[in-house]
Amino acid sequence: MQLRRLGINETVSVIFPPERLADALADIDAEVAVVGDDREELAECDGVVTFAHRDAYLDTVDWVHSVQAGIDRFPLEEFEARGIALTNSTGIHGDAVGETVTGYVLMFARQLHDYVAQQERTEWRHPDWDGPFTVRGESLCVVGLGTLGRGIAERADALGMEVTGVKRTPEDVPGVSHVRPADELREAIADATFVALAVPLNDETEGLIGPDELDAMRDDAYLINVARGGVVRQNALVEALREDRLAGAALDVFETEPLPERSPLWEMDDVIVTPHAAAQTRDYFRNIAELVRENVGRIGAGEEFHNRVV
């Protein structure tokens, strides 16, 4: 493959201005340009950096880089059939997502979300005596121990929490006291105060958390989802929250995004909703530039892509 022109698709504006990434890559040995979805414009590019898949990529470019780690939105079989390389951004989100999940945990434990709601109502009210708690010694089960899960576990361990995990191939993970295989998911989440989901969306994880798994959790437990919306059966979660079979949930991802205005999740006091922003950081474009620059160098050297999915 020869890289003469690299397109930065305008879809990355969901996360950062495409011009910032183009400027950060101005020193690579190829022309860099911000592009839209026009097929003729894309046909002038050999590669494209994008947030979303576009069908035009299938017959215009040789390399697609996703600025996200998740690749469930890309037609992998078609990419493979057409010989298009797909790379992703796994490995750069652990710090941001780990800190976001730490924020969720502390908000629930210290009831900070309740105080924010009170402030909006200009209401001065102390919490119930048995409401707030400290997280030291509390249990957190991280489902999925890749880059995101390890970032979560590392920070929870630093807070003095008892961290366990679920991984398809169990192995020792720093900061995690015990790792269970995927077929022991219900047993793993049964005793946790917090359950954090950090798995990719695929055939094995779609609908992973449904009625049976929610029933297995403690009624004073909190579910945190920074994976993909499809990992949780949302209707079952809403029902469990309505029936007080869970203490609450922090959700960054949803079955439908943006979360529809009619969704009952908006109105639940025990739910924190964030707009698929757990990985957001002002340095995002710099992190992407580093990954892309490495692969541009590998193309020039005739080496295999880093983070190649297809």
Summary keywords:
10 helices, single chain, Rossmann fold, five-stranded parallel sheet, alpha/beta, 310 residues, seven-stranded parallel sheet
Question: What does it look like?
Answer:
The chain has 10 helices and 12 strands. With about 300 residues, the chain is of the alpha/beta class. It has 2 domains: about 5-90 and about 280-300, NAD(P)-binding Rossmann-like Domain (Rossmann fold, 3-Layer(aba) Sandwich), CATH 3.40.50.720; about 95-275, Rossmann fold (3-Layer(aba) Sandwich), CATH 3.40.50.720. A 7-stranded parallel β-sheet has the order 8-7-6-9-10-11-12. The mean pLDDT is about 95.
SSE topology sketch:
Elements: E1 5-9, H1 18-24, E2 31-35, H2 39-43, E3 47-50, E4 63-66, H3 76-82, E5 85-87, H4 94-110, H5 112-120, E6 139-143, H6 147-158, E7 162-166, E8 178-180, H7 185-189, E9 194-197, H8 211-216, E10 222-225, H9 234-242, E11 248-251, E12 271-273, H10 284-301
